[in-house]
Amino acid sequence: MDFKLWSEMYEQEFIEKAKQLLAIPSVYEESEEYPYGKPINDALQKMLEIAEQDGFATKQVDGQAGHIEFGDGEELIGILGHLDVVPAGEGWSTEPFNPVVKDGNLYARGAQDDKGPVMAAYIAMKMLKDKGFEPNKRIRLILGTDEERDWQGITHYFKKEEMPGTGFTPDASFPVIHAEKGLLDAYLTIPVHEGESSAAVKIVSLTGGDRLNMVPEDAVVRVKAEEEVADRFQRYLEDQTLEGKVEHGGDEIHLTLYGQAAHASRPETGNNAIIRLLAFLQTEELPEIQRQLIDYLHSTFHATNGEGLGVSQSDEASGALTSNLGSIQWESQACQVGFNLRYPVTGNYEQIVGKLEEAARRHEGKLRIYDHLPAIHLEKDHPFVTTLLSVYNRVTGEEASVQSIGGATYARTMESAVAFGAMFHDSPDTAHQKDEHVRIADMVRAMEIYAASLYELTK
Q1: What's the pLDDT at 123?
Q2: What's residue 250's pLDDT?
Q3: Are 51 and 122 in contact (CB under 8 A)?
């Protein structure tokens, strides 16, 4: 079977159908009628509608998720993707929900995470079906709706539907991601004992970030100070090659600093606006209590390997722990910071939490674990893993090996699953960023790899 030729022939169909999906602003919103809001429900219905028109069997499960199925047999192979997206944000050069093809790229929120890859997997299924292939196992594309928040949709789905024996998610990168680090979201609240002070600058509030799985791209501090603080802030921005702005509100001066957003699984690739603002405040004459807290926060979170928290560690299977300071809310009597850790597959969750609680106690603080996803690890010699890897290497001509990531994908919801594409090692990483896009050529090649893999697994 000439999967390369087929995928090239189906390129335009991929673009047209992906555009239909990308035009729906499927961001979570509160709703009494739909579990995660009407736009997400619209995206789920649109994907099922496309599949029904193409002759696939489909099922919608209580508005929480759905699936598209092809083939017969007792065994079930799952492909797990999601149709919800993060908010678009500002600064786009195109309209985020008006998909555009430009210079060989498809631009829209969700193009890379995860609607484009979901559609690539779907078209791979459709190619096999159109060519008359009859798989000896059932192939099921499962459509999640709440991946960017709490995974409630996929959790509900698997309470009611069959668990595939093996599966993959097209929500990461090639070749094969056989290990995913443990993920821990936590909040640390520290009291701020205000007192009389003659310091030149006093912090009124400090805020930044709203998603622990993202490196925050802006942070704002409100201070009571003389006008000179604005001049010092501007010099700091120039010296550090940063952007920001100064505003006045009554007797306060508002200083905003802009960083660079990135996914928390790779915090070193971003520029944390909160950390950068803390570094500026360290140079200012603050009340002693405020200065101590600023110093503590900066020393604890500026390193992205967890060293400041006392939890730095690494292993051969999945690499080093990463730490991301994702949010801060400092208002009068208390400061709350939210952070995200991704720890190695051999890491001990209880020991890590113990270290965090110890750090909190040293500063009269309270630690609250918001979310935890244990690490997953499918052995590299597992037949499912070796099949996927051999197909990838055959198609690309590479001699790649399995990899691990700090990201959290739907592979964690299954007993034997991996992340498998759809990005390549040289693909632009634009997920969760402005001007999110995918190279269409990458999606065409992913379609080839997915079709060939499904063929090998079910022939």
Answers
A1: 98
A2: 82
A3: yes
